[in-house]
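Pasting as-is:
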Amino acid sequence: MPRSVPLGRTLAALLLSCALVAGATACGDSGDAPGGNAASTSASASPSVSASAEKQRLAKTRFVANAGLAAGATYQWIVKPYRAGTFKKGAEGRRLALVKAGLAGGFAYNRLQAAAKNAKGDPLLSKAVAPLTAGIESLKGLGTKLRKGEAGEGDVGAFESVIDSIKNAGKDAGAEVKDRVPSTSQLTG
């Protein structure tokens, strides 16, 4: 049997929630800081400096994570099934393997673009990864090609080549990339 909550408690909880939301909103920075107070100006400048430093510090970590997911997806759902002959006509499980390869191709392209964007936050990585952006762009339509079963040895080789180049660039910049296989839900999500 459901237990009813007294109206007073409900109202109190609602008022408390509204007060917390209003308080959190009031604490936000509106950007209209008065220019006459030097302490408030320097205090507002330091968070942006630390945020910039934090972003740069995490650039390598994010690069490694994104490139690792791209490498893992490419190997697990594109290279490995291709080498096993699963993409050939008449092969058992071909249709599912092609769908997964298509999803993995799109996922890998997305993660490689994110890794290239992350690399811009680190001076050494940006120099190492900049030449590879054209290779990443060349992968744009391969996910669809894989899903339709139109991909060949050269297409799978292109994925492998770009992934290897990204891994080598990361290693040269002190950000070693290791394969991280994403879950099937990450591919579709």
